[in-house]
Amino acid sequence: MKFKLKVNGQTRTVEGPEDLPLLWALRDGLDLKGTKFGCGIAQCGACTVLIDGQARRSCITPASTVGKSSITTIEGLSKDGSHPLQRAWEEIDVPQCGYCQAGQIMNAAALLASTPNPTDSDIDEAMSGNICRCATYLRIRRAIHRAADLNKTTASAVTGSGK
Amino acid sequence: MNTELSRRAFLRASAIAGGGVLLSSFWEPAGAVAKRPVPAPVLNAFIRIQPDGIVTIAAKNPEIGQGVKTMLPMLIADELDVDWKQVRVEQADFDSKKFENQWSGGSQAVPNNWLPMRRVGAAGRAMLVAAAAKTWSVPESELSTSKGKVLHKKSNRSISYGQLAAAAATVPPPDLASVKLKDASEFTIIGTPIPGVDNHSIVTGKPLFGIDVTVPGMKYATYLKCPVFGGKVKSANLEEVGRMPGVRKAFVVDGSTTQNEFLSGVAIVADSWWQAQTARRALKVTWDEGETAKQGTSVFDARAAALLKEKPQRSIRKDGDVQAALKKAAKVITAEYSSPFLSHAQLEPQNCTAHFADGKITFWAPTQTPEDGRELVSKVMGLKEDDITIHIIRAGGGFGRRLKNDYMAEAGWIAREAGVPVKLLWNREDDFTHDWYRPGGYHAFSAGLDGSGKLTSFRNHFISFGTEKDFAPSAAISDTEFPARFVPDLALEASVMPLGIHTGALRAPRSNALCFAFQSFLDEVAHAAGKDPLAFRRELLSIAPSPAPAPPAQRRPGGPPPTPFDPPRMIGVLDLVAEKSGWGKQKLPRGTGMGVAFYFSHRGFFAEVAQVTVSQKGDLTIDKVWVGGDIGSVIINPSNAENQAQGAVLDGISEALGQEMTFENGRAVQTNFNAYPMLRMNQSIPVEVHFRKTDNPPTGIGEPALPPAIPAVTNAIFAATGKRVRSLPLSKHDLSWS
Asked: Which residue of B278, B684, B688, B703 is the best one to mutate when testing the A interface, meaning the one whose CB has the most A CBs within 10 A?
């Protein structure tokens, strides 16, 4: 079957079976490779995208169930990597292998959208579904705080969620 | 991803120079690399300079998250004397004719490349200076360089490298062995925090990793192997599966009878990976499971318990007469320890893309060892090494898993059978069930103290895996395991049992398990001696060791000689971490305690202190870990060094808290992250990292901070609760106290 998906502000068409996970619709159907496959059972968070601004695990979300909801992937978070989270991630030199970081950033984007000034325990609660195998957690935490600071001074900071 | 497969060679400048780096041609890598409008002048195999001054530096080693793609070019750029802002980095393809030591593992990139890469940069600088001297008709001795410019101070002239590049490219390259290197005081890039060169691509979701590779006409493959290691396909419902939507081909692969990196299985090639996965769920295979089906964790545990009661099968080291000394000892301490099998669980599942055409094969492989991969593929596919091209692709974590190249052999074979380019991608279950695990192990210790509490005799019987001849991979113990050489009467002994399950190197191999057992038992001995555990260790390290044994043979050629264990360096980091952690300075309440451990591995000296708090009910909180490290005179990239050390400590804690691979009937029980807990954000505790710079050549940072983290924590648990942890993971222990 064919699905219409609203991804990063554009309406795109993907073909696949009814159970096709959004992850594979994005990666192999639409060539959006930023969203990563890690576990396939929503345990690692590498596949996190925003659906109507909410962080969702695309590996267990059938593309056929997304409907008219607005999907944001790491590619759509900003045009040029200027989202405060992306800037903070670079400034603090967060990544090691880098594989989980798109999922971490998307999850953090949902957190900052609902909680612009997260405490450490807010970060613990929101981010503990995302595994970083290299354990860059200390820098991820710093970068989220830094992005919250940048957000205060950046008028254009949005999550791209269409909210 | 750039689909241009061909590699274009530039340049000529000949001569294999000293240091073993060939200054010949620059191979433009395929992959996620921006295309350049015009070829830029090439100084050597690593350096290309555009007229606008942009310097492109080739990073030759596989990037697996250890920061090598940033670090190696830093060495070149500093000696070339350019501003880092001018530098662009490109991943080099695998080319054993052009590059040496093109692999990643063992924290060896720094020691192997510290001088060779600096010489490459210095040679480039010398060529630019020579070109400037010719341009201006002045002696080279009157010229200096700074931030990508050659300066003639006498005439107050300067010229950019970009302007000089074309002329410099025609200068005969200097002899690398005698090229002049900077004094450490002149470094402008080395020793400064440089962010990872791929960071921007990572945070914007650019296709960087093996799993992201796309080539024209590519199909997707899944490969189901027997859940029991070494099991073979007897039959499979291939016809039924072959008719499923999108499936192009489903076939049995026999695997190799000689190469254990190429196992029997069923391959499904489909138009999309999801279709291949869907078809796989309908696959019904009858397996010949083979001998390993009789093995499992309970079998190992029972056999180890029996072996611990028997006479050791082999002697690893024997100094003096440990039996007699233990009889004479004023106090004897005995204990048994064990460690479980562990999985690598790197986040990017194994994958590899391969294209076979006209008898030749091209790979896009996230591997740590492309040269080993080529050898494996050559053997299993019967191809000449010259007919195998390998593009090195950034890997989503290595940790030693990608030292093995099973995914390359499988992808190559499937691509040839399928007749189209194929991306093979394992699912998470494949990854957990076909790892090369960190082997488990068991220890019986005895130690004897004299009347003053001095350690005078020490015995370890290590129960491991292997054959009469060899230990299984990463299941060995060396004859220098501390406290060997520091105790007069000492015996290190071992017994093994057979193992059909694959094992291999996991970050800080051997050390990651041995350190827990040895540094925990030494802690017991310190307490039995009535001494402060840190002071006891310091005292032990202050004994003049008996002569060093012959250095171990190196696995791969090309690096500097092994770094000897140097007790004063270890005492230095113990003192550093004692100071930073405030060891012994404060009285901690019951339920809170500090533990210490040290370890020498991968040429690095690390001492670590952990503070933990355990509630009366037994809930463990690790409050903080302090790290003291000595990796030589310079911390090449302080940002990455801190990140690696923190990551290594948290990785160790992740292993200790809840990780264990168990086996039943020859198959892995844990098959995904729901059964194999990884450390999470809410468990990530502060890790304070301090380096002590000593007058020694710089060494690597990917691994050596890991081993002491585990016993530092378990020793702290003892200090907090009086409970001694002698096996892992901690999740199996009741830590409650009253």
From this structure: B684
> Per residue in A67-94, is it b (16+ CB within 10 Å) or e — as a string?
eeebbbbbbbbbeebebbbbbbbbbbbb
Q: Of all residues in chain B, what percent are helix, strand and coil, respectively (each to 5)?
A: 30, 25, 45
Cis peptide before B483 (omega within 30 of 0): yes
Q: Is A98's CB within 8 Å of B687's CB?
A: no
Contact flag B681-A123 (C-beta cutoff 8 Å):
yes
Residue type, A149: D
Within 10 angstroms of residue B325's Cβ, the number of other Cβ atoms is 22
ipTM: 0.95
Strand partners, B490: B319, B458
pLDDT at B3: 30
pLDDT at B6 over 60: no
As a whole number, mean pLDDT of residues A33-40 equals: 98
Interchain proximity A41–B673, CB inside 8 Å: yes
CB contacts, 8 Å: A75 with chain B? 204-205
Contact present, B368 and B340 (Cβ < 8 Å): no
* Token pair of B549 as six digits: 């044994």
Domain assignments of chain A as residue spans, ordered by start: 2-76, 84-153
A:B CB pairs within 8 Å: 191
pLDDT of A6 higher than 50: yes
Cβ burial B131-143 (10 Å sphere, 16+ → b, else e) = bbbebeeeeeeeb
Pair of tokens at residue A92: 């603090």
Interchain proximity A90–B199, CB inside 8 Å: yes
Best interface-test mutation with A: which of B203, B639, B701 has the largest number of A CBs within 10 A?
Answer: B203
φ and ψ of B571, to 5 deg:
-60, -35
Burial of A158 (0-12, 13-18, 19+ CB in 10 A): middle
Distance between B204 CA and the closest CA of chain A, angstroms: 6
Q: Say how far apart CA B647 and CA B652 lie, in whole Å.
A: 9
Note the pLDDT of residue B32.
Answer: 36
Alpha carbons B66 and B196: distance in angstroms, whole number: 10
**What is the pairing mode between strands B232-236 and B604-614?**
unpaired
Distance from CA of B193 to the nearest CA of A (A): 9
- B98-102, B224-228, B327-331: segment of lowest average pLDDT: B98-102
Closest CA to B480 of B539, B561, B557, B563: B563
* Amino acid at site A108: A
DSSP for B447-497? EEE-TTS-EEEEEEEEEEEB-SS-BPTT----TT-TTTTSSSEEEEEEEEE
Rounded-to-integer distance, Cα B712 and Cα B706, Å: 11
pLDDT of B17 over the 70 cut: no
> Cα dist. B408→B63, B354, B377 in Å?
17, 8, 7
Q: Which residues contact B499 (CB under 8 A, 6 or more apart)?
A: B295, B439, B465, B466, B472, B475
Looking at the fold, whether B217 and B318 belong to one and the same domain comes out as: no
Q: Which of B196, B220, B396 sits opposite A93 (nearest CB)?
A: B196
Q: For chain B, how many structural domains are there in total? A: 3
Separation in Å, CA of A68 to nearest CA in chain B = 23
| Cβ within 8 Å, pair B206-A123 | no
- Candidates 1.10.357.10, 2.120.10.30, 3.10.20.600, 3.10.20.30; CATH matching A2-76: 3.10.20.30
Architecture (CATH level 2) of domain A84-153: Orthogonal Bundle (1.10)
Helix, strand or coil, per DSSP, at residue B699: coil
For residue B504, give both structure tokens.
Answer: 């291999």
HSE-up of A99 (CA within 13 Å, CB side)? Answer: 33
Residue A99 to residue B687, Cβ atoms within 8 A = no
What pLDDT does B1 receive?
Answer: 34
